[in-house]
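Title: Comparing notes on inverse folding

I've been comparing how different people in this forum approach sequence design from structure. To keep things fair, I'm posting one structure and asking everyone to reply with a full sequence. Here's the target:
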């Protein structure tokens, strides 16, 4: 008797499970139909019709829109905005940031900011051993002048005869420079001190008064300052302290007509050597 009773309970449980499963399937089916309908509606009704450009830039709105590869009538929902951003950067190397926003029902908004050139790298020629024949040498570098921003992005290549008011960087050789790419220096040990000095000088407000930075020797870095001084900093160790000492010496201890060399390679023994001619 107990066995028949248990079997009866099990049959009732199975019947309830079968009855309860049907509504669940119907709910899932309705949800699926709803999702398909929404996607279909978005695909059909949301089409690109207009573009807006926000941000100051040297590039025309038409140039940037052409770089997106989008055309009126393209689907607003399905395009890959990251691929579009990459295409814009390739076509517009002076851009620093690019954002793409979908504005329903039919507008694409493009927001941009520009890089600011802060220095010019003079790509120096150098002879290195030929990797295929160690008895021979090959020449690298010598590609000309390259404008860079504070992050090292190569913005454009200019002729060595083109006048510039930007700080010039000497003593480095670039690895396969390309517009829109970032600086790679053949003398790898110079890359970190170069950008440390460059960005610290900009943050300190003195970069515009530096005519040139010489990185020919890693531990004998120097720069021209105010068209009157050669400043020797040695390495970039204690750079903030060295620049503070530079300000103190020039403002408090030297006259407005002073000219010469400031040796700040060791601030404990810093000295000024006046020009004798």
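Reply #1:
Here's my take.
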């Amino acid at each position: 008797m107990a066995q028949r009773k248990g079997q009866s309970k099990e049959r009732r449980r199975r019947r309830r499970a079968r009855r309860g499963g049907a509504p669940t399937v119907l709910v899932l089916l309705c949800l699926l139909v709803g999702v398909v309908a929404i996607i279909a509606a978005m695909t059909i009704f949301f089409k690109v019709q207009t573009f807006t450009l926000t941000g100051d830039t040297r590039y025309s709105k038409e140039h940037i829109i052409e770089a997106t590869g989008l055309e009126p009538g393209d689907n607003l929902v399905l395009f890959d905005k990251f691929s579009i951003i990459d295409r814009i950067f390739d076509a517009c190397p002076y851009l620093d940031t690019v954002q793409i926003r979908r504005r329903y029902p039919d507008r694409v908004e493009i927001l941009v900011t520009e890089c600011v050139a802060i220095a010019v790298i003079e790509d120096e020629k150098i002879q290195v051993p030929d990797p295929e024949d160690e008895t021979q040498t090959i020449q690298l570098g010598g590609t000309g002048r390259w404008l860079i921003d504070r992050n090292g992005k190569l913005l454009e290549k200019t002729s060595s005869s083109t006048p510039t008011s930007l700080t010039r960087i000497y003593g480095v050789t670039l690895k396969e420079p390309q517009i829109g790419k970032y600086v790679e220096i053949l003398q790898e040990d110079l890359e970190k001190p170069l950008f440390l000095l460059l960005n610290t000088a900009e943050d300190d407000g003195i970069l515009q008064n530096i005519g040139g930075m010489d990185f020919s020797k890693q531990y004998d870095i120097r720069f021209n300052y105010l068209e009157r001084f050669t400043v020797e900093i040695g390495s970039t160790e204690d750079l903030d302290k060295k620049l503070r000492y530079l300000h103190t010496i020039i403002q408090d201890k030297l006259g407005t007509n002073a000219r010469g060399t400031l040796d700040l390679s060791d601030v404990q023994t810093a000295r000024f050597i006046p020009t004798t001619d």
